[in-house]
Amino acid sequence: MPERIKFSELAHFTDKQKEARELVAGNKFILYGGAMGGGKSYWLRWQLLELLLRVYAKYGLKNVMAALFCEDYPSLKDRHINKIRYEFPEWIGEFNASDHNFVLRPDYGSGILAFRNLDDPSKYQSAEFAFQGVDEITKNPEETFHFLRTRLRWPGFKNVKFLGATNPGGIGHEWVKRMWINKQFDSNETEAPLFAFLPARATDNPYLDASYLKSLEGLPEDMRKAFVEGNWDIFKGQYF
Predict the structure, then answer these.
(1) Structure confidence at residue 167 (pLDDT)
(2) What is the mean pLDDT of residues 6-35?
(3) pLDDT higher than threshold 80 for residue 78
(4) What is the pTM of this model?
(5) DSSP labels, 32-81
(6) Looking at the predicted structure, is the pLDDT value of residue 47 above 90?
(7) Quick one: DSSP state of residue 222?
(8) 105-158 pLDDT, tens digit each
(9) DSSP annotation of 203
(10) What are the backbone dihedrals phi and psi of residue 52, each rounded to the nearest 5 degrees, phi first?
(11) DSSP assignment, residue 230?
């Protein structure tokens, strides 16, 4: 275990991911997204890990729980669980395959990053999370988001955060665009100023292979606009 290490030496954020990280400080509901290949999933899991490390370092809170949600378990496994096994160093924590939790070691506060699915959000009705992340949030209905907000709390801690990452399209395209891109809220929304959106494109990711970019450019025009340009101005028939 290193005696002293900076978070930037652990998470190799791109310049765009660093911008998203800066948004977290002054906002509560952050959406990072747009085109495919922008490094959204990587940012999401590492940003949640940093929040757990910081809540212990700054406030001394132990056993704090964060949750990283996907629409189903296979997506969790493919996008995140299979990757943290070699991304997260062993000296910082350990993944428990039986309950799908990554638990930080006591020296770092014993915080928990729980990997959960959203096949039935109501099963989290009694749960509490200081930090939440939803990967591909547009794959979920608006009701799921509002329900998760009711689970966004932690005893003795007020600076809770909700992080989202997504491409345009999906069943939730319309409501996500309305809130984060167009900034249109219901009259009873009390936290509208705390929503922030940062667009990302594949060209923002220097680690992406050029052949992948070329493949995306060959998609049909409607898909190319959404997945290469991160264009949210697609009609309902193009919600994939």
Answers:
(1) 85
(2) 90
(3) yes
(4) 0.91
(5) EEESTTS-HHHHHHHHHHHHHHHHHHHH---S-EEEEEESSHHHHIIIII
(6) yes
(7) H
(8) 999 999 999 999 999 999 999 999 999 999 999 999 999 999 999 999 999 999
(9) G
(10) -65, -40
(11) -
Rounded to the nearest 5 degrees, what angle is found at the Cα of 37, between the Cα atoms of 193 and 197?
5
**The two three-digit tokens of residue 174, written as one number:** 């319309």
Taking Cα atoms as reference points, which of 57, 63, 38, 69 lies closest to residue 162? 69
**Are residues 14 and 207 in contact, defined by beta-carbon separation less than 8 angstroms?**
yes
Q: Provide Rg for the chain, Cα atoms.
A: 18
Q: What's the confidence (pLDDT) of residue 223? A: 74
Spatial CA neighbour of 138 closest among 58, 197, 82: 197
Contact 230, 39 (CB under 8 A): no
H-run or E-run covering 27: none
Is the predicted pLDDT of residue 93 greater than 90, yes or no?
yes
Query: What Cα–Cα distance (Å) separates residue 208 from each residue in 20, 21, 24?
Result: 18, 20, 24
DSSP structure string for 135-187: ETGGGS-HHHHHHHHHTB-BTTB---EEEEEE-S-STTHHHHIIIIIS----T
Residue 24, classed as helix, strand or coil, is: helix
Instruction: List 68's β-bridge partners, or say none.
Output: 115, 133
Q: Please give the single-letter amino acid code of residue 141.
A: P
Could you tell me which residues come within 8 angstroms of residue 85 by beta carbon, excluding any fewer than 6 positions away?
A: 95
What is the Cα–Cα distance from 21 to 29, expressed in whole angstroms?
12
- Cβ neighbours, 10 Å, residue 70: 26
In this structure, what token pair is assigned to residue 86?
A: 């070699």
Q: Which residue carries 């992948």 as its tokens?
A: 212
